[in-house]
Amino acid sequence: MRGSIPGAGLLALLLVASCSDGSTTAARGPAGPVSHADAAVSVVPLDRAGNVPTHATVLVAASGGTLRNVTVKGPRNSLTGVLSADGTQWHSQDTALPGTTYEVTAVAVNPGGKVSETHTSFSTVKAEKTFEIKEFLPDKELTGLTVGVGMPVMITFDQPITDRVEVERNLAIRSSKPVLGAWHWFDDKTVHFRPKTFWPANTTVRVDANLEGVRGGRGVYGKQNQSIRFRVGRSQITRGSTQTHHLTVRRNGKVVRQIPMSAGQGGAWKYYTTSGVHLAMSREPVTIMTSPGIGPGSPGYYQMTVYNTVRISNSGEYVHSAPWSVGSQGYSNVSHGCVNVSPDNAVWFINNTLIGDPIIITGTPRPLEPTNGWGHWQENWKQWLKWSSVKYFTTDSL
């Protein structure tokens, strides 16, 4: 939504300058007819203005009458707008395209019913370069369109974005159950959204990236609009402790599975399982695992095929089948950082996990970094908002 209307002061000046001094009358006795001057119409941007920013609001106002119709047409698109309740003002809602000439037609009517038309035009600034979305998640291929309650919305651009405010304010989110949330910039190409708390279960979400013509930086404008729609499934939250050596899986608040586990053995920092709010990032029937930071021929090197794995970070952590450590599961930590479970439990876990399900591990000295995979929930709400350009908002109803 737009805040104060840009150019409102200029519009007021235009109205003062362009309005007539009121209606005129022709005397035909006390009951004689009254004639009125045409309604005066003012338009911002001014007629034939050039290099107009694509986000500039088109303002049309009538004095001595009301507006009947306003159109703003370009070769490729038209700008929609809103008419005030009293019919005297109209303002556009859409973003214009760069390097485009728009024709404004305003039809007004005076108190006597006389109709008049005003025609103006303006041209927008030209684009030197365009940007578009390179990756938009969740999606059908990588995550599936039914996701867990911790799932963020993730957008990656193909060009650096310096005008973050303008881009962020054109990313619209609607949901069947409104939530309080915010966007968060991780770098100049990456912006993610998450609610303040986990999504409500069974929520439908639509994200509209209305970026066509939007300024992303000096001379850089959005190439096209894109949208995604996904569903948040049941609430499933898994909690595990490296001290008790068990995972507890709760679905919609009820315990549905207790799983003995063995976590990272520690010693070296890289062999601790990270503590924190992880998200299920992928489900892989087969994963080839290699020792972190150790090459072939070096002491401690390994490469092994592991089955039924659920990735929970980018530092090589999975919940996976480990038949070799079943005797330690539920009793001690012997892995190189992964969460080991039995083959049967691994099959159950991969089959019952959605991408975006929270998997919360506690008990180790090594914290999960917010940028290690999808460690978004490691930041509290205040920290999350620190990297938002327009701060928090409540999603519109879907």
The percent of residues in helical segments reads under 10%
Q: Tally of extended strands?
A: 30
Please give the count of helices: 4
- Low-pLDDT stretches are 1-32
Mean pLDDT: 91
Structural class: mainly beta
- What amount of the residues lies in strands? 35-45%
Rg = 30 Å
What is the global morphology? elongated
Distance, first to last CA: 16 Å
Strands across the major sheet, in which order? 10-12-15-14-29
Largest sheet: 5 strands, antiparallel
What are the defining features of this structure?
5-stranded mixed sheet; 4 helices; 8% helix; 5-stranded antiparallel sheet; mainly beta; 398 residues; elongated
Explain the overall architecture.
The longest helix is centred in the first third of the chain and has 11 residues, at 8-18. The two termini are 16 Å apart. The chain has helices at residues 8-18, 164-168, 343-351, 381-386; strands spanning 40-44, 49-52, 59-63, 66-73, 81-83, 89-92, 101-109, 115-124, 129-131, 133-137, 146-147, 153-157, 171-175, 180-187, 190-195, 203-209, 215-217, 220-222, 226-232, 236-241, 246-251, 254-260, 276-279, 282-290, 303-311, 318-321, 339-341, 358-362, 393-394, 396-397. By secondary structure, it is mostly beta strands. The strands form seven sheets. It has a five-stranded antiparallel β-sheet with strand order 10-12-15-14-29. The chain has a five-stranded mixed β-sheet with strand order 11-19-16-13-30, with no helix packed on it. A five-stranded mixed β-sheet has the order 22-21-20-28-23, with no helix packed on it. Helices cover 8% and strands 40% of the residues. A hairpin with a 2-residue loop joins strand 21 and strand 22 (254-260).
